[in-house]
Amino acid sequence: MAGRFDLNTTTLGQLLDDPEARAVIDELVPELPNHPMVGMAKGMPVATVLSFAGGQIDPDVLAQLKARITAL
């Protein structure tokens, strides 16, 4: 069964508004919710935001984030 979130269509704002997804983000990438550009990125699909993050997020952390969010 697929999870609730498709990173290609779910926006960053939707994840930040969801308590379970927000907990994963807060654990793995705690600086993300308070990043100065987050307001602009909230309407973008998560996959797009993560592609912009490039080398700023450790690849292992990025893989964990994707796996745990899509598993919700």
Helix proportion: 55-70%
Rg result: 11 Å
* Distance linking N and C termini: 10 Å
Q: Flag low-confidence runs.
A: none
* Shape by Cα distribution: globular
Major sheet details? none
Task: Characterize the quaternary organization of these chains.
Answer: single chain
Q: Can you count the helices?
A: 5
Q: Report the structural category.
A: mainly alpha
Strand content: under 5%
Summarize the structure in words.
The chain is mainly α. It has one domain. The chain contains five helices and no strands. The radius of gyration is 11 Å and the shape is globular. The mean pLDDT is 92.
Keywords for this entry:
72 residues; 5 helices; mainly alpha; single chain
In short:
57% of the residues lie in helices and 0% in strands. It has 72 residues and is an all-alpha fold.
Set out the fold topology.
Layout: H1 12-17, H2 19-28, H3 38-41, H4 46-53, H5 59-71
